[in-house]
Amino acid sequence: MPTMNEVKSRPVAALAAYYPLEIGGERVDALSGKTFPVINPATGQTLCEIAEGDAADIEAAVAAAEKAAPAWGGMSPLQRAEILNRAAAILAERMPSFVEIEVAQTGRPIREMKAQLARMPEWYSYFGAVARTYESSVPPFGGSYVNYTRRKPIGVVGLVTPWNHPLLILTKKVAPALAAGNTVVVKPSEIAPITPLMLADVLRDAGLPDGAYNVVPGFGVAAGASLCDHPRIGKLDLTGGTETGRKVAAMAGEKLIPFSGELGGKASVVVFDDVPEQEAVAAALFASFVAAGQTCVQGARLLVQRNIYDKVVELLVKRTDALRVGDPTDPRTQMGPLVSARQLAIVEKYVEIGRQEGATVAAGGERLTDGAFANGFFHAPTVFTDVTNDMRIAQEEIFGPVVCVMPFEGEDEAVTLANGTPFGLAASVWSRNVARAHRVAERIDAGIVWINDHHRIDPSSPWGGFKDSGIGKENGIVCYEGYTKLQSVVVNLSDETFDWFADDETEKRYS
Ligand code: NAD
Q: What GO MF annotations does this protein's record show (predicted)?
């Protein structure tokens, strides 16, 4: 059993009792007057109330974003970069409040949130720099022509985000969308909408024009669907589950607008026998249990070469049982609760499915309810062995602290197993053999492969999945380009009149 770390009900200094919507540079109540609560997953208590947006509020937010589009999109890239750089500096100054709120609304340990959020300002400065330095191309058109391209803002972009990394995932979308000159309407997760609202103050204070950044919290079926179905949105970008992705992509398809979806995952951590067992286990613990397993790139499947399998399992179980689970505000806590009662129920359901499928619970396997855990949504970090690749626990996204360990013989089997799910977001390959590590990475059908590491990210490094894990990329120049419309301008340099229908019998260029 994991070590219990007492859950205290500390006051959250940076928290307000109520958060209105952010529309057109103003804080406004929902037109319906409705609100909904945000729950602290560690204690089960209500943190605050949030204005509950629906279709009418989305309409107002889109109108505000449209109004702001000419001013923001018309600024030079240098002006936009300066504002984004100021936003980076202000965000860095206010980081302690963001960390405190992120811990309270997600239940993720303060150690994780400090480390993750400290890097957020980099996204604003990176994408400001991309806007500032982006050079268009001059394609080799041929003949007496010059052809150049230019990138234009799309207009109003709809951003729909999840609860697991509320500020990180929003930042990955907002920074490039704004850098490229778009205005945005954000529908954050109903479970963790506070930091997306706090970001509005940062951007306003940095000089972003009113209405360029709008936030309408609310539920997926109401505010989310209204935003995605809105006729005047120019692009949709969602991070969420694969089923939500299919629905939003279908709405984008109806309107013939671009869609980018960062969706579900079931990443494999592939460990070859030349890696010391202690190192393999440290890798697996981080990949599987950071964020209580609630990350899209969670190492949900640990594939271990057979001759070190028993030793790795033994050490993994020992270290899993020793993890300190508990109060996320305590810097010593290593794993917090799941984000909600619903997420806890999903994890419990899958653990039961795993048992019924014949897998062995080697560590954890149950909800934690004793004493300090009583009111929160805690589940023990769980290790399954005797898993086969066809089991549901090996195939379906659980999004919780559950890892399935499976052995493999050699490279071919490792690759077959790693590719043997409907998902293709990420994987990691662990080996001292450089040639083998690169060879296996190339054969893995996933959008991101780490070699001798897991879950590393940088604003410059493209992020996005294959197969059921989504379409499109976050991060990097490719993401910036995804927030633009590419215009091709073809210039005829000839002084001669072109008359296709003249009866002069000369051979003329047709295309
Ligand atoms: P979710 O799909 O339930 O919700 C995501 C967002 O979509 C929320 O804001 C929600 O309100 C909204 N939404 C739900 N239904 C909608 C609809 N019909 N129309 C419009 N919007 C709708 O996902 P979640 O539970 O918040 O997040 C967990 C999921 O996100 C996991 O599947 C995880 O793998 C995925 N995820 C992917 C990445 C990635 O980079 N690929 C990163 C983080 C999370």
A: oxidoreductase activity, acting on the aldehyde or oxo group of donors, NAD or NADP as acceptor
